[in-house]
Design a protein that fits this description.
It comes from Halosimplex pelagicum. This protein is α+β, with helices and mostly antiparallel strands and 58 residues long. The protein contains one helix and three strands, in the order αβββ.
Length: 58
């Protein structure tokens, strides 16, 4: 039973690290409210400002 517990923990850790890495990847940001997005928008879905620009934090 110990091998399944260990394997389950390792799988969960991998899922969490993959999710964190995906969350960190944002190509665009809103200059008004600093929201981050993976896709480009003409206006920010969070605050409505037309200030979505490419993120320069790479």
């Amino acid at each position: 039973m110990g091998i399944f517990n260990r394997l389950g923990r390792e799988v969960e850790e991998f899922k969490q690290s993959a999710k964190e890495a995906a969350d960190e990847r944002h190509d665009y940001r809103c200059e008004a409210c600093d929201a981050r997005f993976s896709t480009e928008y003409e206006e920010c879905p969070d605050c409505g400002a037309e200030a979505v620009v490419p993120a320069d934090d790479e």
